[in-house]
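INFO batch 0412 | record 1 of 1 | parsing
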Amino acid sequence: MNKFLLAMAGAGAVIAVSGCVVAPAPGYAYGADGYYAPAGVVYVAPTYVAPGPGWGWRYHAEYGWGWYHPRYGWHRGWH
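INFO prediction complete | emitting tokens
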């Protein structure tokens, strides 16, 4: 009976954790628009909140990570 309870506890743990293994949320390594950072680029988390709706966290080849908007370009004057 003791081995049965141990096996059931292990199975329950596997089932509980299995729902956590999913693709990363948009914006972590890629934006909602499907943008992916180049291979070998280390992800850096945002240091301040998004300037507004529609801004996505992207990688810039010269300046690094920053906020980008399809209409307004890079935040804080990046080109």
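INFO post-check: The first strand starts at residue 56 and ends at 60.
INFO record closed
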